[in-house]
Backbone:
């Protein structure tokens, strides 16, 4: 029996971790209806002062809106400027205007302080709830996109549902339906398909595409035999084997993480860790491995918290999925909570529309979309949905993190949590220490404003104040990681329905203090056949998820099949995979795209089924061998008459080295390196480490998941690396992804910029890559390991050479490669680097170094890096 | 007198370079070095015609700096402040900064660039720029490659292809602290990979340069091998390149493999040269001060400008420095002065230093962003994108100093007089380097391609 878990919710179950978070008031909805008396007071005592003293610099009718603050109406006062809300009704301490007229942190008006009686009037006014009749009303933003434009827009190819095409007869060459469609294009463009690739090349290509790892020498031999008997049969059974391997999910999840802008820190100016982001990463891997229907996968990420769940495990999975909406980069330095929220919603609208639908709606935040018939009100229809949603991404308030949030406690417990348990006494001690630090920090801040204390005195320096503040935040983070009994909490990032459902108001030019008419919550009109129906009490997020995944949605399936095709064929059909709109390039083969989209939906949105269909097609099997004529007829390979030679991506390069060297640890590591650091700031050399901060109890020192020792760090830093380059041997998908500090092994080979939706990575060849392959510690280590493996597994020099090529190139060496190898060993030079102050190498050491050099050379060569 | 530039095609390379196209790979290998030298795609080449400029420093201001607040003086904008604007509902906003005339030429430059303004007599303002793309990524791409739609070679790559370089131990085209995910703007596309820009320094993060290079230690990751002597590493590299060469011969056309081959040779040489080149500890305090390298706001960009001078001096053909965060939709009044302040002194220092060293006369310094900004202010303190009219400037090699070329309308909305499209701008830059943009072609897929496609007119009026 299925029941809706949502109904069972109580705050006790899905508790939200409560941090030292001051409630942020100031939203319009909390504003009490002003009394006639209150209005009278405002008109008599307050308005004249605002007009006389403030308008000149703080209104859009005056000369400026200094500091982003306008005092010209109620909404603007409540929204405030860069530093936060000017007025929080009933709360003097939180009202920055009160702070400023009293010459505390701010001094306004700047020239002379207001008379004491006027200040008293403001006190009375704020305390009575700041009644203010100046409500901007009647502003109605007219869209330049007409109803007719939208109707016409629906005729655009990408906004019409895909239609199953008729499959042509096709020649003998075409073995599958895909081939017969592709062949149509060959005929139309006078192209002939390239020959089939040979067994070794094909096997390598398929392994790297499907699981991101090269085939073993044994698999190579077996496959080559099977291929001789019946290539189709050989391919088919190998595809099935790979689709069943856990490595499939690790490979394909990474493609998804690229578009989902997955990262484990906030990025931007203040880079704060997301110690629980990895749960989303693992969720994506598991989803691909389980061949979770793609429509369900989409729904879970957008509205998992609102979906029915049969078990606590399923519920937890759904909550983790919504991490998708919480993972974006964030400007924690932003002081104005309303601005922060508007930016957060904007990011959510942007990723949701581009990742799932391949259109950019976020352009319509400030004005109608310039290229597609998407009016600004469509944006605010979506904004209403996300505004009625609360986002949880963690963090602790500090001077640099002005926008922390809570996290979601999962209904299931992590059997092996990243955080250690604490005794009640430890908690008490930590709390006491934290409180002391906070007091010291406040004193330090106060000292800064005291001219009688010399600037050079330690307690007056800004650095001191920041350190104290950061230490206190660090301890709070540690305290937040356990419940009141000291038991580690199992938490995730994600979203929940907000307490109140509320439509958004259109913001003129996207300005938070320029609200116009309210817009009912809804979806993108040009993509809708009928108007959205959203129940009054529902945010509409679940409806949005369902709307995006209805079978006839014109974009959702097309966008995903385009990506799958691209990852297998090296080029997409729509070559800007996140831009299916009018400003994009359109499909090179609209018929093929529609065929794949319709098939995808018919197969129950099965990614594995589609991967299988493409991987077993003839066109996937083509050789990449250069042919002048074919090249000149179709230089950009728009019609796929040949295979594209591709450079392996960063993960495949690293994982392939580890596979060849025999060092690869195929087990999934627990959590992430970043989880071990808790919630903390990441600096240029890595996260601030709790144990390394002065005055911090040792309890938070070594945490599980924390990488190898200081030696490894020091060594890596020498070669230009950071702490995230520490020697670990698990698959690259599990490496830490801090937005401002990527592991070098990923960054140097064009890793996807984790703050952006990246559908297609760059593929460059740079001297930095050459330097990495020539000199980097990790590469040297793997070369040594491969050398040791070869010494162990083969005896004769010829066998050793042969094995090395089979392990690195996944094929036997050519005659000239064997010859070149002998030539290398005859002349190899192992002279140590100058300045090492060491004795000459012994004969046996020389031999080993030469072999390691040889292994490194194979890794460094172009053949290893390129997939034909 | 005419100079002939060899019109290379990939086929020619394959046929003429006996060791295969990746020529550099094999100079270290054997006696073919001498022979290969004549085929070196990077060796200095004669320009199409004599020209003053020998090298380029391109100061790229990413985000679209406001021209009406910096280099395009619009008194009418002040007169009509607050009036409705031509392209929408929002009101015209006069520049909050004062413009003054500078130098003998009397060029109008705003108070945001006090130091650069001192060089007004060396500067040529092009006040009639326009391009086709209103969005950042596409306009950036068009500024760099001429074409926002397809992947095409970048300006720096074309320059290098046309002229080669004078230091084969350094990349001929260096991009200092380029923004993340911008490889295409420094790429070589279908030109041989040797012509692509090499990124030096970490990618900048939201406008903040992360330049490390003042210490004596390694300035670029993995710049030295902890295990092998250089001679020993060379032997290993010879083997790598033999494997690569064999692959190239097997597969005929593999630009990627050519790129790998060249990247290794360059990397190997850079190991010798780069650490010294990036070590600025030997520079005098006076020089450091000139560039504003003082730990303050000008420090980061100052270092990059100084590094650019050192690279140029060592023979690098084209250096590009990016400075980000010029997209002032909001907070123009606080953020624009901050950006200008960060670059003003360093740029002025660079111009002074180049002049002192007698290098300004043959170094072309270019300043500009992907577009400008609107004269109206949608929210009272910020301006929108404007690709219809904006300003870039040049100084040094072969450019007339102290002039203003072209003009936008009374408010700075659109270029109206002597319009300079981005294609014209490209044609002019190539011309200043002695390259005829209609003749600098590369045969790809059966067609001759050029930076300016079928467009572009040289702006003769600014050439001295």
Residues:
């Amino acid at each position: 029996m299925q029941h809706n878990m949502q109904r069972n919710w109580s705050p006790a179950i899905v508790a939200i971790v409560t941090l030292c978070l001051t409630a942020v008031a100031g939203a319009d909805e909390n504003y009490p209806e002003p009394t006639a008396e209150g209005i009278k007071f405002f008109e008599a005592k307050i308005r004249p002062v605002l007009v006389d003293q403030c308008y000149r610099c703080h209104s859009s009718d005056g000369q400026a809106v200094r500091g982003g603050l306008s005092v010209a109406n109620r909404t603007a006062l409540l929204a405030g400027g860069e530093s936060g809300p000017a007025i929080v009704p009933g709360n003097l301490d939180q009202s920055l205007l009160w702070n400023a007229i009293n010459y505390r942190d701010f001094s306004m008006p700047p020239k002379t302080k207001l008379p004491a009686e006027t200040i008293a009037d403001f006190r009375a006014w704020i305390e009575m709830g700041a009644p203010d009749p100046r409500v901007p009303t009647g502003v109605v933003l007219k869209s330049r996109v007409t109803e007719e434009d939208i109707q016409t827009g629906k005729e655009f190819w990408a906004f019409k549902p895909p239609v199953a095409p008729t499959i042509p007869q096709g020649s003998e060459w075409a073995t599958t339906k895909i081939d017969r469609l592709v062949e149509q294009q060959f005929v139309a463009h006078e192209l002939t398909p390239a020959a089939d690739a040979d067994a070794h090349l094909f096997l390598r290509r398929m392994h790297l595409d499907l699981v991101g790892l090269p085939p073993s020498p044994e698999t190579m031999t077996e496959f080559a035999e099977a291929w001789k008997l019946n290539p189709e049969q050989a391919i088919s059974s190998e595809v099935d084997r790979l689709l069943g391997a856990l490595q499939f999910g690790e490979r394909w999840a990474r493609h998804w993480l690229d578009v989902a802008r997955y990262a484990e820190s906030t990025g931007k100016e203040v880079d704060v860790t997301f110690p629980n982001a990895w749960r989303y990463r693992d969720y994506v891997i598991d989803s691909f491995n389980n061949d979770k229907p793609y429509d369900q996968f989409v729904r879970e990420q957008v509205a998992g918290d609102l979906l029915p769940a049969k078990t606590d495990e399923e519920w937890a999975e759904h909550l983790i999925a919504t991490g998708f909406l919480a993972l974006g980069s964030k400007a924690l330095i932003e002081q104005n909570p309303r601005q922060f929220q508007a930016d957060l919603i904007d990011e959510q609208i942007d990723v949701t529309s581009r990742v799932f639908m391949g259109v950019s709606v976020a352009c319509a935040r400030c004005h109608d979309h310039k290229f597609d018939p998407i009016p600004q009100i469509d944006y605010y229809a979506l904004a209403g949905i996300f505004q009625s949603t609360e986002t949880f991404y963690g963090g602790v308030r500090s001077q640099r993190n002005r926008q922390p949030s809570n996290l979601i406690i999962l209904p299931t417990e992590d059997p092996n949590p990243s955080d250690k348990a604490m005794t009640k006494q430890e908690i008490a001690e930590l709390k006491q220490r934290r409180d002391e630090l906070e007091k010291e920090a406040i004193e330090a801040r106060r000292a800064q404003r005291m001219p009688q204390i010399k600037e050079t005195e330690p307690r007056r320096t800004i650095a001191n104040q920041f350190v104290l503040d950061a230490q206190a935040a660090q301890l709070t983070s540690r305290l937040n990681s356990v419940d009141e009994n000291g038991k580690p909490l199992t938490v995730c990032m994600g979203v929940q329905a907000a307490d109140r459902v509320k439509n958004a108001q259109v913001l003129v030019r996207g300005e938070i203090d320029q609200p116009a008419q309210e817009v009912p919550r809804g979806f993108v009109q040009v993509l809708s056949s009928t108007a959205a129906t959203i129940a009054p009490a529902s945010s509409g997020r679940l409806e949005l998820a369902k709307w995006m995944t209805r079978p006839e949605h014109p974009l959702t399936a097309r966008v995903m099949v385009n990506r799958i095709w691209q990852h297998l064929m090296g080029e997409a059909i729509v070559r800007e995979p996140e831009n299916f709109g009018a400003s994009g390039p359109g499909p090179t083969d609209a018929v093929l795209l529609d065929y794949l989209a319709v098939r995808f939906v018919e197969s129950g949105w099965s990614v594995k089924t589609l991967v299988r269909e493409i991987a077993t097609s003839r066109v996937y099997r083509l050789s990449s061998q250069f042919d002048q004529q074919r090249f000149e007829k179709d230089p950009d390979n728009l019609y796929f008459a040949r295979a594209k030679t591709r450079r392996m991506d960063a993960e495949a390069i690293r994982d392939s080295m580890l596979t060849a060297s025999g060092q690869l640890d195929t087990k999934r590591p627990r959590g992430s390196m970043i989880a071990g650091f808790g919630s903390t700031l990441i600096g240029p050399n890595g996260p601030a480490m709790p144990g390394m901060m002065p005055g911090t109890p040792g309890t938070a020192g070594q945490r599980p998941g924390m990488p190898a020792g200081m030696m490894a760090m020091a060594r890596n830093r020498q070669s230009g690396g950071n702490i995230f380059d520490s020697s670990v041997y698990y698959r690259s998908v599990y490496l830490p992804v801090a937005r401002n500090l990527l592991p070098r092994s990923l960054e140097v080979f064009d890793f996807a910029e984790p703050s952006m939706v990246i559908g297609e990575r760059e593929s460059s060849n740079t001297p930095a890559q050459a330097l990495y392959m020539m000199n980097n510690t990790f590469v040297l280590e793997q070369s040594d390991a491969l050398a040791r493996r070869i010494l162990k597994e083969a005896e004769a020099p010829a066998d050793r050479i042969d094995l090395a090529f089979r392990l690195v190139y996944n094929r036997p060496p050519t005659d000239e490669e064997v010859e070149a190898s002998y030539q290398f060993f005859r002349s190899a030079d192992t002279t140590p680097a100058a300045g090492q102050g060491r004795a000459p190498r012994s004969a046996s050491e020389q031999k080993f170094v030469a072999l390691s050099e040889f292994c490194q050379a194979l890794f460094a060569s172009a053949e290893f890096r390129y997939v034909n | 007198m005419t100079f002939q530039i060899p019109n290379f095609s990939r086929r020619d390379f394959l046929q003429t370079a006996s060791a295969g196209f990746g020529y550099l790979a094999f100079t270290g290998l054997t006696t073919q070095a001498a022979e290969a030298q004549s085929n070196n795609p990077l060796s200095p080449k004669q320009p199409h015609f004599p020209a003053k400029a020998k090298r380029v420093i391109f100061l790229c201001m990413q985000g679209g700096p406001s021209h009406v607040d910096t280099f395009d003086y619009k008194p009418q904008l002040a007169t009509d402040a607050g009036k409705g604007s031509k392209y929408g509902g929002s009101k015209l906003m006069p520049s909050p900064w004062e413009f003054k005339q500078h130098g003998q030429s009397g060029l109008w430059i705003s108070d945001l660039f006090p130091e650069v303004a001192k060089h007004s007599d060396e500067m040529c303002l092009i006040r009639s720029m326009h391009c086709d793309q209103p969005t950042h990524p596409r306009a950036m791409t068009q500024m760099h490659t001429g074409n926002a739609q397809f992947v095409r070679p970048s300006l720096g790559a074309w320059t290098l292809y046309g002229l080669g370089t004078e230091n084969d131990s350094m990349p001929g085209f260096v991009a200092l602290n380029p923004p993340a995910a911008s490889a295409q703007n420094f790429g070589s596309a279908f030109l041989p990979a040797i012509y692509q820009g090499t990124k030096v320094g970490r990618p900048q993060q939201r406008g903040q340069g992360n330049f490390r290079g003042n210490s004596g230690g390694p300035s670029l990751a993995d710049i030295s091998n902890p295990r092998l002597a250089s001679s020993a590493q060379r032997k290993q590299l010879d083997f790598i390149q033999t494997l690569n060469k064999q692959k190239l011969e097997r597969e005929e056309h593999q630009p990627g493999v050519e790129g790998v081959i060249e990247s290794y040779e360059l990397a190997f040489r850079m190991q010798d040269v780069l650490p010294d080149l990036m070590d600025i500890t030997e520079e005098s305090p006076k020089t450091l001060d000139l560039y504003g390298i003082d730990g303050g706001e000008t420090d980061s960009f100052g270092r990059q400008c100084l590094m650019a001078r050192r690279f140029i001096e060592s023979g690098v053909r084209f250096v590009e420095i990016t400075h980000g965060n010029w997209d002032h939709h909001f907070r123009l009044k606080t953020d624009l002065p901050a950006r200008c302040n960060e670059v003003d002194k360093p740029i002025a220092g660079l111009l002074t230093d180049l002049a002192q060293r007698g290098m300004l006369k043959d170094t072309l310094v270019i300043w500009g962003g992907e577009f400008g900004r609107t004269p109206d202010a949608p929210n009272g303190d910020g301006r929108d994108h404007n690709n219809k009219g904006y300003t870039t400037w040049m100084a040094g090699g072969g450019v007339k100093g102290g002039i203003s070329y072209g003009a936008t309308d009374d408010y700075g909305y659109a270029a109206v007089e002597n319009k300079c499209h981005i294609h014209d701008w490209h044609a002019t830059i190539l011309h200043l380097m002695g390259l005829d943009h209609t003749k600098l072609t590369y045969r790809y897929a059966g067609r001759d391609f050029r930076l300016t496609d079928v467009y572009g007119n040289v702006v003769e009026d600014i050439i001295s």
Observations:
- Strands of chain A lie at 389-392, 408-409, 491-492, 494-497, 504-507, 515-519, 646-647, 682-683, 686-687, 866-867.
- Chain A touches chain B through 80 residues (CB under 8 Å).
- The CA atoms of residues 482 and 488 of chain A lie 4 Å apart.
- The first helix of chain A runs from residue 5 to 8.
